[in-house]
Amino acid sequence: MTVAPREALITVLVVDDEPLARQALSDLVTRDSELELIGSCGDGNAARALIEATQPDLLLLDIEMPGQGGLKLVEGLPESYSPVVIFVTAFEEHALKAFELKAIDYLLKPYSDARFTEAISSARRRILEGRMARVAEALASGRPAPAEAAATTGSASVTAEAARPAESRQRAPKPLQRLPVRRGGRQLLVDVEHVIWFESDDYCVRLHVDDGQSHLIRASLNRLEEQLDGERFARVHRGAIVALARVMQIQNRPSGGRVLELEGGHSVPVARSRVKQVERLLLP
What we know:
- By secondary structure, the protein is α/β, with parallel strands linked by helices.
- It folds into 2 domains: 6-167, 3-Layer(aba) Sandwich (Rossmann fold); 178-282, CATH 2.40.50.1020.
- The protein has helices at 19-31, 44-54, 70-75, 95-100, 113-141, 153-156, 160-163, 166-170, 221-227, 275-282, and strands at 10-15, 35-41, 58-61, 84-89, 105-108, 178-183, 186-191, 195-201, 204-209, 214-217, 233-237, 240-243, 247-252, 258-262, 267-270.
- The strands form 4 sheets. A 5-stranded parallel beta sheet has the order 2-1-3-4-5, sandwiched between helices.
- A hairpin with a 4-residue loop joins β14 (258-262) and β15.
- The model is unreliable at 149-170 (pLDDT under 50).
């Protein structure tokens, strides 16, 4: 894989108040060798401080957040600083305002990897065009061409997590309690205690809930597993996490495998490599 020289990298700040959504965006950014993630945070006030410190090329912004929303944040940027902005949100109704603020794109959650790549491609073109225009302007006026480098961001590159006092960073985070989902154009919060099992679904995770419905969220099962309570949920194969209290029966397979029968009529196989671990959790 060819890695872009540091001065050619596009610096990115991720702002989203939902930890899973923020991590999903950060993971996508770090996969791209031409992007450099220089910060991530969960509210508009922290974002403003990071913007002032790092002046990123690209902002990936949620809209409805504590402290200050993404729209207000962009409106309040100084005229001398014009980053490229992609809004990433669960709400359709802010699209007109977002484009009035000259956002390059508007991603609705849950978005696909392909849709994210499309938005990043548009942002990359805009940023590179801006860089070339500044170089041309400098050469025309006889000034040295600006160094489009992030040489100073090495020391400024920081996340809101890293900026917290060491004492607060050492505390174990509380297990995930609620997840945001979209239903009928609205965003709702689902308590994880109502989830029977989580299923990997392409670039998303599907929540199977005890009211008979299912919901898609933009997250990875690996990140979700890290944030769930390990005493209440178990990864039973690479594509499923089940709520242990929702397991009604363990069925033996002739091949030696196991199938979990869950509330609501769901059947979820257990990977052979995880059978002993799952049985220890269910049959202590």
